[in-house]
Structure formats: C-alpha cells, structure tokens
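Researcher: I'd like a candidate sequence for this fold, 130 residues long. If you have to choose between options at a position, lean toward the conservative one.
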C-alpha cells in the first residue's frame, strides 16, 4: 500500500470511492478543483494502483486544520488504511504550522477516531443547511 500526501487522483475514481465508503450513489464532483482551491493538503492511499483511501485537510490559515471526507474502500477497511491516512494528514498539518487537528464524526466512528487515531473527544455543533 502507498500513502501519498497530495497524491494524484482523478475525479471519477474519488467519486466512486466516496460513494462506496459513504453508501450513496456516485455523483460527479469536481474534486481536483475543490482540492486546489480550498485544501491545505490531502492524502491518498493506493493498493496495487487502485485508490482505496482518501482524506482532505482544510485549514483556517492559522493553527487549525480539519479532516474532511475521510474514506476507505469497504474491502480495504480494517487494514490500517484509515489510520495511516489520518497519521499522514496530521503530520502534514503539523509541518504546515497547525497546532490543532479537528474532525467531526458520528458515534459509530468513535473507536476509529479516538481509539485508533488518538483524537480526543470534544463537543461540537452542527447545523444542516441543505
């Protein structure tokens, strides 16, 4: 498996990975455009050339970074791919001068984020806008 900071990817392959990981229909998304315009960095995971993992890291221009769209292909889960993605994202955010790495996650992901990745629990709020 290869873990790459700012790894190359094509929109259709990330569309397919995101849909499989989050259980929604494949929707064409301009990922490359979004990453170029809004991301501090991103990390990809590939197994035999196939995209099996991805995480996006956005920043506030200061000391805060936020994990978004952390996803691992269902057939690659449980192999440490997600943990490796988050570790690489944290390392890169640290190198960029960030002091804090945030992630919002649902209760069924507590073991992953807090247990496997070492995030500390915090309270957060959310408003659904659409």
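Model: Candidate sequence:
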């Amino acid at each position: 498996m290869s873990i790459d900071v700012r790894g190359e990817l094509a929109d259709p392959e990330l569309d397919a990975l995101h849909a499989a990981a989050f259980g929604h229909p494949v929707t064409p998304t301009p990922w490359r455009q979004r990453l170029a315009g809004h991301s501090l960095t991103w990390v990809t995971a590939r197994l035999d050339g196939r995209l099996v993992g991805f995480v996006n890291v956005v920043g506030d221009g200061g000391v805060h970074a936020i994990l978004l769209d952390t996803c691992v292909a269902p057939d690659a889960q449980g192999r440490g791919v997600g943990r490796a993605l988050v570790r690489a994202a944290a390392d890169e955010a640290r190198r960029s001068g960030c002091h804090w790495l945030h992630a919002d996650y649902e209760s069924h992901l507590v073991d992953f984020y807090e247990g496997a990745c070492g995030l500390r629990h915090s309270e957060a709020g959310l408003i659904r806008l659409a």
